[in-house]
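Tokenised fold entry reproduced for everyone:
>
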Amino acid sequence: MICLNFIWNVNSFALVYVLTSGGPGGRTRLPMLFAYEEAFRYGQFGYAAAMGCVMVAVISVILACHLAGRLRGGGDR
């Protein structure tokens, strides 16, 4: 359940984009929103794709560490 909540919160692009579009002064700019703007506002599709791949890798490493800790017995709930 924690893993799904983490993925959901990291990928909350639509909510932030519809409500604030990055907010006043970029205060609510998420990495996904930054990649979207780089691709579709500035035309940097390669850079945005690379940022997406890095985000997937980072999220995968964080979730793998979490799951490894739970399998060792660190999270007996």
Observations:
- Residues 45-71 form the longest helix (27 residues).
- The chain is about 70% helix and 0% strand.
- The radius of gyration is 15 Å.
- The chain has a mean pLDDT of 84.
